[in-house]
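Hi R.,

As promised on Friday, here is the backbone we talked about, encoded as structure tokens. Could you run it through your design pipeline when you get a chance and send me back a sequence?
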């Protein structure tokens, strides 16, 4: 894809964007586009109980006109170890204030490492040194692979592990523009960029028709973010 700059055509830089279909990843996709990147979105069907997010990811990708969107199948459910991939109840609360400290049962072992590694492989074949991910270290559920130090460590590893980076032709940059934002700040930024959050799905335990439960960590943090801005959440919730 090319864009016009003055009287000249300029080739857009490609970027791989991890797109779960949730609020954060939809915002990151919009940020990548706003920064002038040509987005290539990647979504994972990994055996998660909330597989409705894949349909949401497709909807988000279409609404934001990504250049290419792929859905990659991997089966982390074979390992289990998480309320998202095994027969373990998803924790529910009445308010976000009840979310306790520590790493919750919804943590999927090494998930972001697996996802980023596959995104890295695709980015190298695309000659794209930029990868965008919607991790967040403030309004999040305590996952160790959402912290700034994790992202920095993965970026260092990526620059040791890929042909382009070692040869000096394609250094890798992992962009995590939401990492120090609250949920309400993320939503505000997305709205400024025209994100339609009705396309997104954040719930860890949605109903069969995709309606959000309203009581898992992801729902409660999302609802609090919209409430802090004084605007309604356009997602569908179980009545």
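Update: got your reply. Pasting your designed sequence below so it's all in one thread:
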């Amino acid at each position: 894809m090319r864009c016009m700059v003055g009287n000249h055509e300029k080739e857009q830089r490609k970027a791989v964007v991890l797109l779960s279909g949730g609020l954060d990843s939809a915002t990151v996709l919009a940020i990548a586009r706003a920064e002038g990147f040509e987005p290539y979105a990647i979504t994972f069907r990994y055996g998660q109980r909330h597989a409705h997010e894949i349909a949401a990811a497709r909807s988000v990708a279409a609404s934001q006109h990504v250049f290419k969107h792929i859905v990659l199948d991997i089966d982390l459910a074979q390992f289990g170890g998480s309320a998202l991939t095994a027969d373990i109840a998803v924790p529910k609360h009445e308010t976000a204030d009840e979310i306790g400290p520590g790493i919750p049962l919804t943590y999927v072992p090494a998930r972001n490492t697996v996802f980023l590694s596959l995104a890295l492989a695709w980015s190298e074949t695309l000659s794209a040194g930029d990868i965008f991910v919607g991790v967040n270290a403030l309004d999040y559920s305590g996952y160790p692979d959402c912290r700034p130090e994790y992202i920095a460590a993965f970026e260092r590893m990526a620059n040791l592990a890929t042909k382009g980076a070692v040869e000096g032709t394609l250094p890798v940059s992992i962009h995590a523009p939401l990492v120090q934002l609250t949920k309400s700040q993320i939503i505000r930024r997305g709205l400024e960029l025209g994100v339609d959050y009705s396309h997104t799905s954040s719930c860890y335990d949605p109903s069969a028709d995709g309606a959000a439960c309203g009581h898992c960590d992801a729902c409660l943090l999302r609802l609090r973010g919209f409430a802090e801005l004084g605007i309604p959440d356009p997602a569908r919730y179980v009545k």
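One thing I noticed while checking it: DSSP finds seven helices and seven strands in the chain.

Thanks again,
M.
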